[in-house]
Amino acid sequence: MTKSIQQVKQDLENLKSIVADTAIELEKLHLNYLNLLSQSLKQQLILACYQICTRLYPQSFLDLSLSEKQDLQQNLRKIGIQLEPDLIEIVKQKELKPEPLELNLMAELIKNLPRPKRSEGDQQESETEIDLELMKAELENIEFIEIDTTVSDDDDDESQNTSETPPREKIDFQNPEHLILWHKQIERDIKKTLDVTSRKINKHLQDSRIIPDRIPNKVIDVAMQADSSKGGRSNSQSPVVPHVLHLAIETEKDQKSKTFKKPIQVSLLRLRLAELEFADHQLNAKKSQIRNLISKIKKLNSKYKAITKEVAVIEAQSAWRSSWFED
Questions:
Q1: Sign of the C-alpha dihedral, residues 99, 102, 105, 110?
Q2: What is the pTM of this model?
Q3: What's the pLDDT tens digit per position in 298-307?
């Protein structure tokens, strides 16, 4: 027997009530997860910087004065403390932002690389010129990266030319599809926070003369994106250190022999969510709970779509009958 429109709409309202309760549970899980993540991050970023300063660049750290060492350590602690409110703010956002575009990584790399200026007769390339062939070899297995189209306060002047951000949609916590999109947004914002934090710390390490400061920021950004796409795997022979990215950068090419000089080995901080979860069993367990709940929400979404369609079909049939008349 076919259900009446009132019965189907009641089914939809009952389902919306279940989804609303699930949304509360999802928000609570995310808050608990981000609290754990912020604590783990504060510890892991300090440990990673300790390895960079004492194992990878010990002499650079020793060359600093006592006050310079203390300033660097204080800046790192401040960044760690600020992580918790920054991460919690992610869940407080109750609007859906436009999803980022996917662009070809190699095209983005070539577009963003600096173009060195050469004078006539100059036989050597600029120190900051990065060899494209080397980067292609390193990134040949990577196809896509996510490009965030929104403009943040930390973006450089070039970003001010970006077109206006599309309007955001308020999250409907009775709509399971919105919960799924919200979860994806939270995951993207967590990754973005880790990337921004990594860049801030690398800037402090460069300003403190721990790591070389001759690498263009665009190259670092693309290298970090590639590292993320590869899941943190590295072909470098440098020591494996959690949350540290090793790069081999070509700086000069002999124009006569067409051979490359020995590349500069550069180690940078690269906070990786997978490594954080692997090192913290509580964090990993909380992430599993979120995954299980998202799986439940996806099932609710399938049911929600089916009932919504059923309502539309019954209403369309009723509209057809009410508008039909015999000639």
A1: negative
A2: 0.75
A3: 999 999 999 9
